[in-house]
């Protein structure tokens, strides 16, 4: 398990991490009832996404809106849905599509605590010299 994931984190801590990321030049991409946000950390997860997305996209009339490489070199994906879905269903779909299972588990726990946990951080490509130390604590 990635040491940056803290399942006992509080609602306030989650939003403090978001504030820190924003202060360090990251764009915060929040999930909505018509988006899925994927964090694909391994080639196995990318392969799963490539295989499963065809079925999910067809069944939900969904499509890929944007992809980018995260600061740590992983793949982030935004998927646009044609109809709104509950946060619980969106988290489940994200995990089925290959998104990080640890992140998904943390998101479910945050939903239980009343937070909107689904967010990705997108580096501002114009900002240079952000150290990895600035990034490691910002995983929501």
Write up what this structure looks like.
There is one protein chain. The chain has 140 residues and is of the alpha+beta class. The protein has one domain: Gyrase A, domain 2. Helices cover 41% and strands 21% of the residues. The protein contains five helices and five strands, in the order αββαββααβα. The strands form two sheets. The chain has a three-stranded antiparallel beta sheet. A two-stranded antiparallel ribbon has the order 1-5. Helix 3 (87-96) runs antiparallel to helix 4. The radius of gyration is 15 Å and the shape is globular. The two termini are 15 Å apart.
Short descriptors:
140 residues; alpha+beta; Gyrase A, domain 2; two-stranded antiparallel ribbon; 5 helices; 5 strands; disordered N terminus
